[in-house]
Specification:
The complex is a heterodimer of chains A (113) and B (117).
Chain A lengths: L3 E4 L2 E5 L4 E7 L7 E6 L6 E6 L5 E4 L2 E6 L4 E6 L8 E7 L9 E2 L3 E6 L1
Parallel strand pairs in A: 2-11
Antiparallel strand pairs in A: 1-3, 3-8, 4-5, 4-9, 6-7, 7-8, 9-10, 9-11
Chain B lengths: L4 E3 L2 E4 L5 E6 L6 E8 L3 E9 L2 E5 L6 E5 L5 E5 L8 E8 L12 E2 L3 E5 L1
The chains are: A mainly beta (113), B mainly beta (117).
Chain lengths: 113, 117
């Protein structure tokens, strides 16, 4: 049973455009929703995270939108740059943090110059 | 450099063999997590240790085992290897566990790529 469903599997965006990656979860006990960014040959690195008491969190060009009733959250990358080309993972956990993180299957993002 | 060190970076072995992957957590981190990354399954949580004790188990096969030593480094042992065990194995660490910290961030190492022939 896949507890966090991520889409699309791959995404190509023009430089300067908006990249949008979506995730849906099933477990209503989840209370921590991070996004991780992974470059080839590297491990995933935390990009931004949100808790369900807010509907949006913004850090620079990266924004998480969270819809608790729909059990969905999404990552928006504004003004996408070639350096943003990477694999992005959404994740979710209950208990407030890193324990028991369930990851989506990842989105391979390519930003074309 | 994330501060989490994994060795070896690459490992090629044959079916039926046994390998050990090693992880040194970031300085000061007490919790170690092991994840398996494959193309079709994504990142799968295997097991977590906190200060030497097993904390949580995920989708870890009985052929796999792990431990965390007093110096906090961890080893993941994979035995009776099968072709399907070929994957990237990531170690991650965090300072605390559970609700003890408001922002309990996972820091990943660069991974160990295992190829079983």
């Amino acid at each position: 049973q896949q507890q966090v469903k991520q889409s699309p599997q791959s995404l190509i965006v023009q430089k300067g455009g908006i990249s949008i990656i979506n995730c849906a979860y099933e477990n209503t006990a989840f209370d921590y929703f991070p996004w991780y960014q992974q470059f080839p040959g590297k491990g995933p690195a935390l990009l931004i995270a949100i808790r369900p008491d807010v509907s949006e969190k913004k850090e620079g060009r990266f924004t998480i939108s969270f819809n608790k009733s729909a059990k969905q959250f999404s990552l928006h990358i504004m003004d996408s740059q070639p350096g943003d080309s990477a694999t992005y993972f959404c994740a979710a956990s209950s208990g407030g943090g890193a324990d028991g993180l369930t990851f989506g299957k990842g989105t391979h993002l390519i930003i074309q110059p | 450099d994330s501060g989490v060190t994994q060795t070896p970076k690459h490992l090629i072995t044959a079916t039926g063999q046994r390998v050990t992957l090693r992880c040194s957590p970031r300085s000061g981190d007490l919790s170690v997590y092991w994840y398996q990354q494959s193309l079709d399954q994504g990142l799968q949580f295997l097991i977590q240790y906190y200060n030497g004790e097993e904390r949580a188990k995920g989708n870890i096969l009985e052929r796999f085992s792990a431990q965390q030593f007093p110096d906090l480094h961890s080893e993941l042992n994979l035995s009776s290897l099968e072709l399907g065990d070929s994957a990237l194995y990531f170690c991650a660490s965090s300072l605390k566990t559970g609700r003890l910290s408001g922002a309990n961030v996972l820091t990943f190492g660069a991974g160990s790529r295992l190829t079983v022939l």
